[in-house]
Each structure stands twice: as C-alpha cells, then as structure tokens.
Amino acid sequence: MWRKTASKYSLRAIHSTSKCLTTGEKKVWSELSSRSSSLSIKNAKIKKSLFEGGKPETIVNIERKAAYYSPVDIDKTFQLAYDELARVSGDKYALVDELKSQLTSETDTEIKAQLEKKLNKALVDAEIYNPEVLYNFEYDSELIDASQPVYRKLLHDKWKSHDLMVLMQRLEQLHVIPDTLPTLEPKVEVKVKFPHNTKSEFSSWIVPGTVLPAFAVCKPPTIEITLFDETAVTDDSNSSSLYTVVLVNPDEPDLSTNSFTTKLHYGLSNVPLSHTDNQIDSGKLLTDGEEFTFSSYIPILPEKNAQIQRACLWVFRQNEPLTIKSCERESFNIREFAAIHNLTPVGAHVWRQTFDRSVNAIREQYHLPRGRVFHRVRRTDPYMG
Amino acid sequence: MKGRILGRISLRAYSTDLKPVVSSTLLISRTPIISEELTAFESQYYKYNNELWKRLMWTFPKWYYYKDGTISEQMFKELNPAPVFNNPNVDFPNGRPEIRQGRDRRFKQELKLPKTYSTEVERADETAAESSDNLSRKIVPNSRITKADETKDLTSLERKLARTLYLVISLDGNKWSLPNFEMSREEKVPLHKLAETGFQSIGGETVNYYNVSNTPCHLHHSENKKEYFIKSHILAGKFAPVDNSTKFMWLAKEELQEYLEGAYYEDVKHLFNDV
Amino acid sequence: MLSSSIKSAVLPVLRTFVRFKSKADVSPSTQRVIGQMSALSASKKQPKVIRLSNEDLIKHKSIVNAWNLYRRRKVSRQRDQLNKQYQSIVDAMEDLKQSEPELYVWANTKQTNKKFPLQLRVPTDYPPSQPWVYNVKK
To answer: What is the ipTM score, two decimals?
Structure first.
C-alpha cells in the first residue's frame, strides 16, 4: 500500500487523481461551484490521505509516520460510510433548494423568518457530517468560516460544552451576577485579550476570573464577540446588529458611606458586528474609535491595600442606534444605564486586579493623581461591630 | 359447518342491498430460517469493529492452556511461531516491535489452533456416512442458498431462507390473491375459525400452523365485501391444494407487489415484513 | 541459631512468586494457582493503546456518524411500520364493533389456553441440513 520509491509514488499519484475525478462527480460534497471553499480541506496531501488511505500526512516525523499503523479496514469502511453520509446530505441539499425557491416567492415576513430558520437548519444538517468540515473544525482553525451555518453550529456546541460553563461559574462565584446586573442569558461568546503584552501569559485570550497585573491591562483590550443566533445576522444598516460594550468596576472604595461604588472604565456603543467581522481591535478603534467611544479606556488601578477588584465587561445588544454624549464615570449605575437605553445583556466577561508594583507608573501614564493607601483600622470593640 | 364455508370465490351473487359480505383473509407466513442478509455497509462496519475488538484483546495466556514441555504445547508452538524480537542492533524502518508475552502489542494476536481432523480424510470423501458421526470432523456450514433458490421454485418452502414468505393462491392460474374465505349469512363463526377451516378445506390439512391471534390485523374494504386479515405462521408440513386447478406460491414482499393487484397491495403492504 | 530458624520459617512466605522462575521450589499446587491467577491478571497482557492520527480520528468519527444515521433510519422505518400495523388492528376492531358485534366479541375474547409453538425456529446464520420439516403428525 505504501510505496517508498519516488517513481512508484508519482505513478500512483497520477493514477489516483484520475480516479478521484471520475468518482467525485456524483458526490455532493466534492462539488464546489455552489459551496464555499471553506467546506473542503485546503491541503491536497492531507485530503488525499483522508480519502485514499496510506500513511497519514498529518504525522510530520518520518520515523513516527513509518511506525504508524491505521486500524484494519478503516479506509474501506470509511468509503462506504462516506457514501452513506453523502447520500443523506444530498437529500438535505434538495430540501435546501426547495426552501430557497419558497423563500424567493414568499412575501409574508413572519413565514419568511420561519423559512429562514428551516433553511439554516437544513444547511447545518447537510454539512454537519462532512468529514472535511469536521477536519477543518478540529485541526485547521484558519478555515473556520463563521459565515457558514455549519461552522457556527460547531462553534456554538464547543462553546456550550466548556467555555460557557466556566464563564457562568466565574460570574456567579465572583458575584458579578447580581452585583452589576441581575442575571445573564448568554447569547454571544465574549473573548478578551490584551495584545500589547509580549508575554504569552498575558497576550493570549483571558480565562474568566484570572487575576491580572496592572501593566498587562494598561491599553484597551481586543474584544471578540462571536454571534451564534441567526436573527442577529444583519448588515450595518440594520440597527439590531449594533452592540454596546461597558467595562465597570463594582469594587471602587467609597469612604463616605463606608462601602463601594461602581465606576465606569470603558464605554463603546453603536458597534456594528456580524458573523465574520466580530472583533473590536485597535485597527477598528483607530478608524471608527471616536464614533464608538462614549467613555475612553482607563485601566482599573487598585490602590494599595484595597481589596481585590473585579473588572466586569458587559456586552449589550441595542434595539436602536444610541446617542450617548458622555457619561459620569463615578457612581455609575449600570442597571439604570441598561434600562434607559433599552439594552439587552447578551454576553459578559470578568477578570480581577489587585495592587502591584506597576500601578503607580501606569497612574502617571494616564495622568492620574497618586493613589491612596488604605490601612486597617482596629475597631474599638470588635463585639459591638 | 365446513360445508357452508366457501373455499373459493362464491359463484352465487348476493343482492347488493344487503350488508357487505364479511370474509376472512389468511395471512399465512413462513418466518425466516436464517439470519437477515446484511447490506454492504453493515457487514463492513461489523468487520471493522471486529478488527478493532481483536486489536484491543488481551494476549492469549498460552501457559495456562498448554503446559510446558507437553506435545500439545509443541504443536501450538509450531503453528504459532514467535514474532520477530526487538533486537537493539537491528534497524526497524516500520517501527520497533513491542513483544510482551510472545505477542507484538502493536497488532492483534492471530492464533492458529491444532486441527482436530486430519487433512487426508477431509480430501478423501466428505459425504461418507461415518464422517457425520465423527465429532472431530471439519465443520462445514450448509449453504445459505438452497436448491429451490437455484431452480427458482416459487412453490417451495425452502426458498429465500432469510426472508418471510407469504402464501398466495390462484384459482384460475391468472389472478393471484391471498387466501380469502367468505362467511355464510346464516351461521356466523369467529373470523379466525373461518380462516382456519377455510384453509384446511383448500389444502391445509397437511400443514402445522400457529394462529397468532383471534383479532383481525387489518380490514380491507372492497366492493360490497369486507376482508378481515388473520395472521398465522406455518410451522411444518406442506400446503397441498385439494383441487388440482388451484395454484399457489410462497412469495416475499417485493414479489407480492408483482403478483397482487396494485391498489390492493398498496392497502396491505404494511402488513408484510421487510425482512 | 534462633534467628536462622526464624529465617527459614519466614522466607518461604516472603518469597515473591515469579512465573517460569524458581520452578523447583514451589509445590505443583501452588504453581497451578499462580498459573490461574496470571491467566486472569492484566499484567503485560494488555495491547498497546490505540493512538489514531488526525485523519484516522476523522475517519472513525465519520464511520460512527454514518452508522448512527443508518441505524436511526432503519429503526424509524420499523417503528412507522409497527404504528401502521397497530392502527390497522384498531381500525379493523372499530369497524367490527359497529357492524358485527357478535364477531367483535369473539375476536376480543382472550385465548387463555393457547401456547407459543416450540417448533418455531430462531433464525441462525446457516440453515440446518433439512431446512423444512414436511411430515406433520396428526
């Protein structure tokens, strides 16, 4: 099966490509004129080893590759399984065509929305078992194209299986819910990173709840908001695709009441997002930053001996375009803010900060006064409270 | 009672103003004798899983079944030579063997057991009468395809052993139908009794059958006639028509489609087994 | 003197048993128990863990996916057929109740002394030498 000599190998390659062309015509998944190229494997060698067997191309080390043995009969079984899956997919594509023709003739918006939902499901069902799609999703993250319903479905499932659970645990255990907003029904995935850092520890995506030093957060973060629900897909002209992002710190010490207040650290509004264009990064802020920003970024800089502070990032979906001129940072009431502007919370993220050696330097950088230093004060009578 | 039940389509025409004629149709089937035929995908999937299972199987504890130094151990050794051992001085381009307990752990263990029969006898004559009594003879399974399949004998009960067969009869050799028996208007009998006695009157005397239930399993309306279906299985014996002009066949579901009337088949096709 | 006697008493107990070694020292019955226990134990008898390459993992997943779809289709087809058969029985009995009450009662009585026939064969992979029994005892 596996030839070592180059001449034999090339002969085999020519033979197999011709075979591939003849058998490929009748199959749904090898047809690429009406389907996106992201639904097939880009690397021709890997594609060949997937469909024709032989030693796997994904093992790069020559010795390990030679020592690898596939399970007996896997290729033959895979061929039959592929035919079976492609046949089912063919039925689904027939349904897709039917739904598309119905959509063009339909005028009622409600029925149209239902049809679109059905069409989306049929598109997912037609591709969800495609081995090439599965391969790309698992091993070739560059090819994950969020404009394809099948990749969105896979991303959604993956998010729900782990990251969503971690996020909700952190939000509840750190009491972000209900200290900032009463609850959250998560609809989008919010990922945050600070790309100005050079250490990978701080430059990669932040796990919710991590304690970060002040130098790591001294510049505005890159926020990636992955949309999953299909109703949110609209172009820039439609207001329902606009989002508001707010970063608050609910642990700002308030000495007058011997309690804490919420402070606003970052505010963006009217940010248009879609399935493919889903990042708020420095490039986007450079061009449209002034338009979006109603409250510029100031990092959370805890003062000495103040307690550990939570940075709560909330993402809201807007119902209409907003005109927020500026906002009072101190004593920011996020619940009132959401109610006034008719905002729906769809996602959140949280990280924590505490005083460290870099705080004072960053205070100077942002022209802030020197921070206070808190001391423990012993109560006169501990039993009296 | 038997005399009043008509084993064939009645010649006497009933006046149409009366209630429709009640009749009982016997759905007598021969259940499969051998297991279902697998599709290409099914058999390939089972084969693949079987290989995985063998690959993950523990090593055969040879020392437990073959005591050291015995003749049987020697025979076993001859049949199962030890795999190539992991010589550190030799280069293995296709991966180093991992030998544990005389097995290469990377692959499934293939065992050959000493034969209980000698090959000469096997070659000499397999059909010898004494060989069937010999317990250590080579086991050769019977063919799944029988003589009736080869000669395409549609009346045989030995055809299509893997399928459920249904009895169809024809009185004129032209129009085929399931055996149907009409109820007399004077004396009423239970539907399953009607089917049973009717079946015996046309040639079911030599059949051992099992009526599944006294409850009819289907109702087919036709012009001034109601056909209630009674399910039954043939267990042994042979259907031998009393009247020589009566033709009969044992057919599987797809074949029934050819012989039964189109609309009738569409109405009753869900009663027939796909297997 | 004393210590050596203790040693000789304790040593056979402390000895670790190894298959094929120190054969002469243990009694045949002990050796048999060791053999039986080693046949049951997993020691060294387990195969290497299957580590699949990326391609083979995808292939295996696809095979399992195809099998699940295939089974689901087959089972749902059988279920549909059974539902239809059940509906047929209900329809037939409803009709019988309306048109022929007497026959309905007969069709609805429970057959108490009826026994499942032992002659009904369970399908096997290969047929018996005589696939069908023709002589019926009356």
So the answer is: 0.82
Residue B233 token pair: 């299985």
Q: What is the pLDDT of residues A53-107, one digit of tens each?
A: 889 999 999 999 999 999 999 999 999 999 999 999 999 999 999 999 999 988 8
On whether residue C79 sits in a domain, the answer given is yes
Residues of A in contact with B51 (CB under 8 A): 71-73
Q: Are C62 and C91 in a shared domain?
A: yes
**What is the pLDDT at residue B15?**
46
Which residues 45-74 in chain A show a CB within 8 A of chain B? Answer: 66-69, 71-74
In a domain, C121, yes or no: no
Which residue did the predictor score with more confidence, B6 or B193?
A: B193
CA separation (Å) from B37 to B162, B257, B269, C63?
7, 20, 21, 21
Domain range list for chain B? 21-34+146-271, 40-132
Contact residues on chain B for A69, CB-CB shorter than 8 A = 95, 106-107
Please state the length of chain B: 275
**Crossing angle of helices A131-139/A149-158, nearest 10°?**
50
| Residue B228 and residue B202 in contact, taking contact as beta carbons nearer than 8 Å | no
Mutation for A interface: B38, B42, B44, B49, most A CBs within 10 A: B44
Question: Which residues form the domain of C33?
Answer: 9-40
d(CA A128, CA A25): 21
For B9-58, what is the HEC assignment?
CCCCCCCCCCCCEEEEEEEEEECCCECCCCCHHHHHHHHHHHHHHHHCCC
More confident: C7 or A244: A244
Q: Give residue A34's pLDDT band: very low, low, confident or very high (50, 70, 90).
A: confident
What percentage of residues in chain A have a pLDDT greater than 90? 69
Query: Where in the sequence is the domain holding A92, given as residue range(s)?
Result: 22-145
What fold does the segment set B21-34+146-271 form as a domain? Nucleoside Triphosphate Pyrophosphohydrolase (3.90.79)
